[in-house]
C-alpha cells in the first residue's frame, strides 16, 4: 500500500493538498494520504494528523516568534515518519517550515517531492540550490520558477498552475448572487482580509474605515466579507462591531462569491490570483512589522507583491503596502473599479495575465508525478 505524507501549512495550501489528494485517490483508492492540512484535506479523503490552523504564521519576525512551537512540530513530523514509513513526503508551499522537515525526510531515506516550492525566483535565490539538494522531484507552478530551479540543478517540471483547475465556481451565476444576497442595481464589494489572525487584526480595521467613504460616493454599494476557515467567527464579529457600515459575512462557496462580486479589497496572497481567475478586480492590501518590511525590501527580487501584477509585468491591480494602505486609497481604488469602463479594462488585463499560468490539468499531472516518485522508493 502506497503511503503519502503531505504537509500543507495554511488555508491556500490546504486547498492544493485536497485537490492533489482527490486526484491521487482517483488513480489509486488504496493510497493512504496523511499529514498536515485542514478541513479541505479531510474532506478530500486525507487524514489530518496535524491541523494547520494551529501553526499558520507569516512574515520574518512572526516566524521567528513561533520557532519554539514549530521546532516541536518538526519533531512530531519525524516521529510520524519513523512510525508510518511513508513512500514519499510531499511539501505544499509553507517553505519556512517545510524546508526543515524535508531535511528530516531525506535523512530517513524518504523521497521528497516539492509542490509549489519556495519562491526562489522572488527572494532568497539560494533556496533553489537547497531544494535541489533535498528534492527527488520539484513541481513548479510558474514557468519562471521552473527556470530558476533548473539552473540550480533540481529535477524540476513546470506542471502548470493548480488554480486553473481549482478555481471553478460550483453554483450558477444566479445561485451565487443569491448566496451573497446580491440585489439588482446594488454592486457588491467583497472583503478578503486573509486567513491569518495577524492579517485580520492588521488589515480588516483599515478596510472597514474605507467603507463609509465608498458609500458616500456610491450609496447603493453593499459589502460582503468572505470568512476564511482558519478564522474564528468571534474574532471577526468583534472587529466588525466597529464598522459604521453593515457587512454581511459569508463562509464557503468562495469562488462563487468572487464571481458574484464586483470589486474586492484583498490582503496580499494567493487569494488575489484566485480573484483574478474569477474575473474579480481586487485592491491588494498588505502590512507587516517594520522589520519584516525592511528585510523584504532588501531581499526581494520582484517589483510587485501581487501575483496578477507579477504575471502581467506591471501594476494592473493597485498595491497598497504599509503607509499606502489607507482608507482613502482603498476607497478611491474601489470606486475606480466600480466604473464600467475601468472594470472592463482591468478584467481583460487579468485575463491576459492568468493565461500565463498554463493549461488545465496541473493537479492531475502532479498527482501522477507523486505516485511515480513513491513507486521509485525502494
Radius of gyration computed on alpha carbons: 21 Å
Instruction: Give a short account of the largest sheet.
Output: 7 strands, parallel
Structural class: alpha/beta
Helix fraction, binned, reads 40-55%
Binned strand content: 15-25%
| Apparent shape | globular
Give the termini distance in whole angstroms.
13 Å
pLDDT under 50 segments (min length 5)? 57-62
Average pLDDT, all residues: 90
- Secondary structure: number of strands: 13
Number of helices: 18
Strand order of the largest sheet: 3-2-1-4-5-6-7
Task: Summarize the model shown.
This protein is an alpha/beta fold.
Task: Write a concise keyword list for the protein shown above.
378 residues; alpha/beta; seven-stranded parallel β-sheet; six-stranded parallel β-sheet; 18 helices; globular
Walk me through the structure.
There is one protein chain. By secondary structure, the protein is of the alpha/beta class. About 50% of the residues lie in helices and about 15% in strands. It is built from 18 helices and 13 strands. Strand 5, helix 6 (about 125-135) and strand 6 (about 135-140) form a beta-alpha-beta unit. The chain is globular and about 65 Å long. The two termini are about 15 Å apart.
Amino acid at each position: 500500500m502506497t503511503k503519502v505524507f503531505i504537509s500543507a501549512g495554511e488555508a491556500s495550501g490546504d486547498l492544493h493538498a485536497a485537490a492533489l489528494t482527490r486526484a491521487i485517490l482517483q488513480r489509486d483508492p488504496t493510497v493512504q494520504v496523511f499529514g498536515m492540512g485542514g478541513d479541505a484535506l479531510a474532506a478530500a479523503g486525507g487524514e489530518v494528523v496535524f491541523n494547520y490552523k494551529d501553526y499558520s504564521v507569516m512574515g520574518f519576525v512572526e516566524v521567528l516568534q513561533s520557532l519554539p512551537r514549530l521546532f516541536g512540530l518538526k519533531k512530531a513530523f519525524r516521529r510520524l515518519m519513523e512510525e508510518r514509513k511513508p513512500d514519499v513526503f510531499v511539501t505544499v508551499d509553507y517553505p519556512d517550515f517545510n524546508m526543515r522537515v524535508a531535511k528530516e525526510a531525506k535523512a530517513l531515506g524518504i523521497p521528497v517531492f516539492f509542490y509549489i516550492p519556495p519562491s526562489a525566483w522572488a527572494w532568497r535565490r539560494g533556496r533553489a540550490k537547497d531544494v535541489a539538494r533535498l528534492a527527488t522531484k520539484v513541481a513548479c507552478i510558474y514557468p519562471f520558477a521552473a527556470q530558476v530551479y533548473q539552473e540550480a540543478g533540481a529535477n524540476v517540471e513546470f506542471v502548470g498552475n493548480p488554480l486553473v483547475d481549482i478555481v471553478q465556481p460550483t453554483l450558477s451565476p444566479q445561485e451565487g448572487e443569491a448566496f451573497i444576497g446580491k440585489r439588482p442595481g446594488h454592486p457588491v464589494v467583497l472583503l478578503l482580509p486573509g486567513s491569518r489572525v495577524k492579517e485580520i487584526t492588521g488589515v480588516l480595521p483599515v478596510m472597514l474605515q474605507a467603507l463609509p467613504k465608498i458609500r458616500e460616493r456610491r450609496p447603493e454599494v453593499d459589502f460582503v466579507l468572505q470568512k476564511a476557515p482558519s478564522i474564528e467567527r468571534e474574532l471577526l464579529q468583534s472587529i466588525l462591531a466597529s464598522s459604521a457600515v453593515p457587512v454581511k459575512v459569508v463562509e464557503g462557496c468562495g469562488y462563487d462569491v468572487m464571481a458574484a462580486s464586483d470589486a474586492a479589497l484583498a490582503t496580499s496572497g494567493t487569494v488575489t490570483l484566485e480573484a483574478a481567475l474569477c474575473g474579480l478586480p481586487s485592491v491588494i492590501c498588505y502590512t507587516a512589522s517594520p522589520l519584516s518590511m525592511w528585510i523584504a525590501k532588501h531581499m526581494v527580487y520582484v517589483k510587485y507583491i501581487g501575483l496578477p501584477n507579477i504575471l502581467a509585468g506591471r501594476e494592473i491591480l493597485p498595491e497598497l503596502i504599509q503607509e499606502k494602505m489607507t482608507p482613502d486609497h482603498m476607497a478611491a481604488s474601489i470606486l475606480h473599479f466600480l466604473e464600467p469602463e475601468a472594470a472592463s479594462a482591468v478584467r481583460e488585463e487579468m485575463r491576459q495575465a492568468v493565461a500565463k499560468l498554463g493549461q488545465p490539468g496541473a493537479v492531475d499531472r502532479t498527482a501522477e508525478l507523486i505516485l511515480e516518485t513513491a513507486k521509485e522508493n525502494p
